[in-house]
Write a structure and sequence with these properties.
Helices cover 45% and strands 7% of the residues. It contains seven helices and four strands, in the order αβααααβββαα. Strands 1-2-3-4 form a four-stranded antiparallel β-sheet. The longest helix has 20 residues.
């Protein structure tokens, strides 16, 4: 399986080293009624400051395809809100390529999440049991950034900078 961003991350983080994997289902407490709360609680939050959390955040920040397209257009993605505004101004050439469209949308969402996590106090990544990353704000609100990025890539709305502005004001 060829996943470019994962390969690059593994090269930088000593991909030859064995990695321990644990079952996160043990981390999910049962409710008062004994029911499994996996659908209600994240399996893993990346805002806790542990070394593994930083690795997950770094992996989510890769956005290799989006960074390549932005660089081709002369835009530097420096993880700032201003870079989101610049992305909103890109000509959506990716819409002509049905294979690239979902990948670029996924990257756009992950990049939006990266900017939020790095610039909004208290924001952190959380990975749901199904594997989907969301950004949790200090208020408890969760932002499905991948879905937002896909919507942006397909239709151009909502603009990434607009979503960021709403998050900042929340």
């Amino acid at each position: 399986m060829n996943i470019p961003f994962l390969g690059n991350w593994r090269k930088r983080n000593d991909g030859d080293r064995p990695v321990a994997v644990r079952d996160v289902s043990e981390d999910v407490p049962a409710g008062r009624d004994g029911a499994d709360r996996r659908a209600e609680e994240p399996a893993h939050g990346t805002g806790g400051g542990a070394a593994g959390d930083a690795g997950v955040a770094e992996l989510l920040a890769e956005c290799e395809l989006l960074r390549a397209r932005a660089e081709d257009a002369g835009i530097e993605l420096d993880d700032t809100p201003e870079s989101l505004e610049a992305l909103d101004q890109l000509l959506p050439r990716w819409r002509d390529d049905p294979e690239e469209l979902p990948w670029l949308g996924n990257d756009a969402g992950l990049y939006l999440g990266t900017v939020v996590v790095r610039t909004v106090p208290g924001a952190s990544w959380h990975i749901w049991p199904g594997g989907g990353p969301v950004v949790r704000l200090v208020s408890g609100r969760e932002l499905n950034v991948v879905e937002t990025g896909l919507d942006w890539a397909v239709t151009g709305a909502p603009e990434l900078s607009q979503v960021y502005a709403e998050v900042r004001s929340y």
